[in-house]
Amino acid sequence: MALQFLINILVGVVWMFFSGNYNSEYFAVGFFWGMVLLFIFRKTFAKNILGDQLYYIYVYKWIKLILMFLFELLKADINVLKLMFKKDLDVNPVIFEYPLEVTKNWQITLLANMITLTPGTLTVNVGHDNKTLHIHCLDTDDIPGEIEGIKNSFEKAILEVDLNG
């Protein structure tokens, strides 16, 4: 993946030198054409030199994960804010067990931290076998809905980001 990025930079620099203009605009145009060349030759050199996945698709997936997290963070902020301004504080706090689909340590850590950073939820513990998380939810009546929500947002995006599948 690093080789792909270096090839892309090299094409940008070569484009800049061949055009005779040494500024960032011409480098950006060359960088764009380098991305196009990598896309065109991905089948030819994919297994041998460039790897299975283009680096900019990998970067796109990380940006998508970050934006999804920020959106979920905003939704949770609004929900907790509504809860705070209720006349009667009627909450139903629950600790539940969440079965993990992610298997790698960095994925489990990232998921646990994303859950903890979202207001209203807190990762209490990781199971000894790394197959479950124990999550505290400030207010819920629908534990299967909470589990499904985490699976369809955070965990799904983390699985997409993984290079090795």
Automatic annotation (TrEMBL):
Highest taxon above the source species: Bacteria
Protein family membership: Belongs to the CPA3 antiporters (TC 2.A.63) subunit E family.
Subcellular location(s) of the protein: Cell membrane
Residues passing through the membrane, by range: 5-20, 26-42, 54-74
Keyword annotations: Antiport, Cell membrane, Membrane, Transmembrane, Transmembrane helix, Transport
UniProt GO cellular component terms: plasma membrane
Membrane topology: Multi-pass membrane protein
Name of the featured protein: Monovalent cation/H+ antiporter subunit E
Pfam families: MNHE
Predominant cellular place of this UniProt entry's protein: membrane
GO molecular function: antiporter activity; monoatomic cation transmembrane transporter activity
InterPro entries: Cation_antiport_E
